[in-house]
Design brief:
Strand content: under 5%
CATH superfamily of the largest domain: Amino acid/polyamine transporter I
Number of domains: 2
CATH class of the largest domain: Mainly Alpha
Distance between the termini: 41 Å
CATH architecture of the largest domain: Up-down Bundle
CATH topology of the largest domain: Amino acid/polyamine transporter I
Helix content: 55-70%
Number of strands: 6
């Protein structure tokens, strides 16, 4: 439950003490290599779909667009590295923005982040079906692409509810094999008789600046996962060094792979290969592999591609659903979104909502538009992340902002990220504007209708009152309380989720309001996994009277 455990790091308000406390809370087991693996696992699926759609916009010079996109991602990556080193166990971009700009911007950014993550996961599932179709065609099987995508979505949603969605032991070999395979394909291209470096070079430098920038904005989504590892900063060894180094190293590796692969594809494959029967090819990597070494190699690459994209979509539902979970814990969304399943102890309602939204995106939104929307959202978030660093540095005398790592070239690099991001969004067309406007309007309405009434800046008062009332009990009262807690434990795991905790307090005659019991639960749930251990709770918050 690592991702759930890290959400609370900054929710108490005091950044300095929260960081110090959480540095000792988690076992720091992830080294620099692990940071790079996690970042790459979130990025790699982008290269499996975007090249052909980018080529439709720009032609064979797309490698330069990948480089330009990386230069716009770089300031956001540096800013995220600084933020994560100052709050090494934070809850990610949502918490940074909510704590920097307040609950209204936090609500808008949280919904925008949720949307961007689920869209990228939907994009991975649509791309997965195109590669899976290569495998089924080779073995003479027939499946509908929608059926494949939606079936995979149902499966990974169910797996997320079961609580076994993030299996690092599986992700690590998939990432290593994928990186090695893509590198081998680039080397194979150099020895191909069809290799002609002049095609991608001429294509890049004969394109006008506007087309290049539009293409860079489109492929931005391929880099969107570079800072994902900051969300588990509490488990990283020596986070002040390994988080910045890992984020920047993974960005460098992805940039080299993306640019080299795009260059190699365009240098080897015939002009216009990205179109077939008037439609854009959605499985460019397997097409490239088949051209290099035959259909069997193409099928092998397609299988690896399927595994990579399924892995990304699996983790994508986990990550996106946790934004709703975190916002609900801040009382910005209704309580059901923070309740965990009594049996599986996972936030099943956010997971189901995320899966439903992904299904709607798969069915109703064309793949190219999914990529545009996801890229647009991520560019906006990266712009805001750059602004967070500027605000925190300029107000450091008030908030005691002293991160262990400070990004170079401040504020010029941050300003470049903001200005360049705004420029790229302006070239993406109406869909980027519409997507951003929907996130803003949805955030404003959500905050106005719910968050403003329930958000509590200082959450200590109900908890302090509860501790005073609960603090000392006779043996008889203690036994009554224990019986009530166990009677409310429908999962029979000696844990209580929020709803069960509220039922227990109500049965015991406590008269706290619904929002007050949420605050009490959040304070008691120190591990931030959505449940409290009954024995630990009584040990921590109750003492017996001497009789």
């Amino acid at each position: 439950m690592a991702v759930e455990n890290i959400i609370k790091s900054v929710a108490k308000g005091d950044l300095k003490s929260a960081g110090a406390e959480l540095k000792t809370t988690f076992a720091r087991t992830i080294g620099l290599a692990g940071v790079v693996i996690i970042s790459l696992s979130a990025m790699l699926p982008g290269i499996f779909v975007t090249p052909t759609f980018a080529a439709e916009i720009m032609g064979p010079g797309i490698w330069l667009a990948f480089l330009l996109a990386a230069s716009v991602v770089l300031p956001g990556a540096v800013s995220k590295a600084e933020l994560s080193s100052g709050m090494p166990a934070s809850g990610g971009s949502y918490v940074y923005l909510e704590r920097t700009y307040g609950p209204l911007i936090g609500t808008i950014s949280g919904l925008g982040l949720w949307s961007s993550f689920l869209l990228k996961s939907a994009f991975a599932l649509i791309g997965f079906s195109a590669y899976f179709a290569v495998v089924t065609a080779y073995f003479d099987l027939e499946f509908s692409m929608y059926t494949l995508s939606l079936s995979a979505l149902v499966l990974i949603t169910f797996v997320n509810i079961l609580g076994v969605s993030k299996v690092k032991a599986v992700q690590t070999p998939i990432v290593i094999v994928t990186v090695a395979l893509l590198a081998i394909m680039c080397i194979m291209a150099l020895f191909s008789a069809d290799f002609d470096a002049s095609v991608p070079i001429d294509g890049a430098f004969s394109t006008d600046l506007w087309t290049l920038a539009e293409t860079a904005a489109f492929v931005f989504v391929a880099y969107a996962g570079v800072t994902k590892v900051a969300a588990i900063g509490g488990e990283v060894k020596d986070p002040e060094k390994n988080l910045p180094a890992g984020i920047l190293l993974s960005l460098a590796i992805a940039t080299v792979i993306y640019s080299a692969l795009a260059f190699a594809m365009m240098a080897v494959l015939p002009n216009g290969w990205w179109m077939k029967d008037g439609e854009v090819i959605e499985n460019p990597i397997s097409v490239f592999a088949e051209h290099l070494a035959g259909s069997e190699f193409g099928v092998l690459v397609a299988i690896i591609s399927v595994l990579t994209m399924i892995s990304m979509a699996l983790a994508g539902i986990l990550a996106s659903s946790r934004f709703l979970f975190a916002m609900s814990r801040d009382n910005l969304l209704p309580q059901p979104l923070e309740e965990v399943n009594a049996r599986f102890e996972t936030p099943h309602i956010p997971i189901l909502l995320t899966g439903l939204a992904m299904g709607l995106a798969i069915v109703f939104v064309p793949l190219k538009d999914v990529v545009k929307l996801a890229s647009g959202f991520k560019i906006m978030i990266f712009m805001l992340i750059n602004s967070c660093v500027i605000v925190l540095r300029q107000t450091s005398h008030v908030h005691d902002w002293k991160p262990a790592y400070k990004g170079p070239l401040y504020p010029y690099l941050n300003i470049w990220g903001i200005v360049a991001g705004a420029f790229l969004i302006s070239l993406m067309g109406s869909k980027a504007y519409i997507g951003g406007a929907v996130a803003v309007v949805a955030g404003i309405f959500t905050y106005a209708l719910y968050g403003r009434k329930h958000y509590v800046v200082q959450q200590d008062t109900p908890f302090t009152t509860f501790r005073q009332m609960f603090g000392v009990a006779s043996t008889t009262e203690h036994d009554r309380r224990v019986a009530a807690f166990h009677a409310a434990d429908f999962g029979n795991k000696n844990h209580l989720n929020l709803r069960e905790f509220q039922n227990a307090l109500k049965a015991l005659g406590f008269t706290f309001s619904k929002d007050e019991t949420r605050v009490i639960f959040h304070k008691a749930d120190e591990n931030e996994d959505g449940v409290i251990d009954i024995d630990e709770f009584f040990k921590s918050y109750e003492s017996l009277e001497e009789e």
